[in-house]
Amino acid sequence: MIAIDSEFESLIPPLTEDEYKLLEESILAEGVHDPIITWNGTIIDGHNRYRICNEHGIEFTTKEIKFDSRDAAKIWIIKHQFGRRNLSSGQRAALAIDLNEAQVREQARMRQVKAGKETHSNQHKRVSQLGTERAQAATAEPQPADQPKPQKGRTADILGEMAGVGHMTIKRAMKVKQEDEELYDKVRKGEIPVTTAYEQVTGKKSHKRGRKPQLTKDGRRVCTICGEPIDDGDSYDYRPSVHKACHNKHTAELQYMNPDKALIENVAVYSTDSLIAELKSSAEMMRDAMAQSIAINESMGVSISRREKRQLDKAVSNIFKAIENISKD
């Protein structure tokens, strides 16, 4: 009897209605080509094929894969989703975050397993007080020799590279996950863009009120300059309907063509109040990103001292004070 695990299934972005219909038509016409993959009798790949086959009484085969833990099975599931082309940037970001969390837990489990084995082995070698001290030291959690070292660099950049999205998309998805798990699950399922979810949990608008932006079918904005879809993180907050590259090129062209008017027409396009508001928003995002990066790095075994944390907090606090002083002048 094959079982369905709701948590495993939730890690797999669902098919759209059209995709499910095409899969069903293919199975009815040609049967099932690929086996349904299971772990301990539970499906880890092939949920849609399994439902279609049961509904229409079609035979199928299974293939059992062995894993040492539940998190190891999750890692396998998530990695097999990145090859799908129909995932939104928010879905890819959610997969990267879930994968990172599963890998951290699995690494911790492997350290505990190895520490337990070494402790058991050393119990048979106690022949003196020195031997006893060595055995006690072995009960600490050592870093396995074959365990990969934590990656250096900013967490959002690392996960963004893994998912093929911008670091701002990762940061926004992290914020949504931290504030509202149900909303994060909607991002994972592709029911809502990560930018929209981020705006809901933070109350921050990534675009100014005015003309409604043109959107693609999957909810992405369309660049007003080149006409191509804009992925999360590929536009500036103050110009969400234009690619960063298009914005930079357009600004450079204006300054080149009108050098005498560049300062007035191309730089001084915002009021003092709006610029201060953007500075505050950037500072808040930096503070949130710093806290999230510290938490994730510590879970991966990379920690900083209390003194360093105080220095970081002081630096951020000074930024807010400086902005506040500017706004008072």
Q: What features would you describe in this structure?
A:
- The structure is a single chain.
- The protein has a three-stranded mixed β-sheet with strand order 2-1-3.
- Mean pLDDT is 77; it is low at 137-153 and 254-270.
- It has 14 helices and three strands.
- The chain folds into four domains: 6-66, Conserved hypothetical protein from pyrococcus furiosus pfu- 392566-001, ParB domain (Alpha-Beta Complex), CATH 3.90.1530; 89-189, no CATH class; 207-268, no CATH class; 270-329.
- The N and C termini lie far apart (73 Å).
- A hairpin with a 2-residue loop joins strand 1 (36-39) and strand 2 (42-45).
- It is mainly alpha-helical.
- It has helices at residues 6-10, 17-30, 47-56, 70-79, 89-122, 129-138, 155-163, 167-179, 181-189, 194-202, 244-257, 262-267, 272-299, 306-328, and strands at 36-39, 42-45, 62-64.
- The radius of gyration is 26 Å and the shape is flat.
- Helix 5 (89-122) packs across helix 8 and helix 5 (89-122) packs across helix 9 (181-189).
Q: Can you describe this structure in just a few lines?
A:
This protein is mainly alpha-helical and 329 residues long.
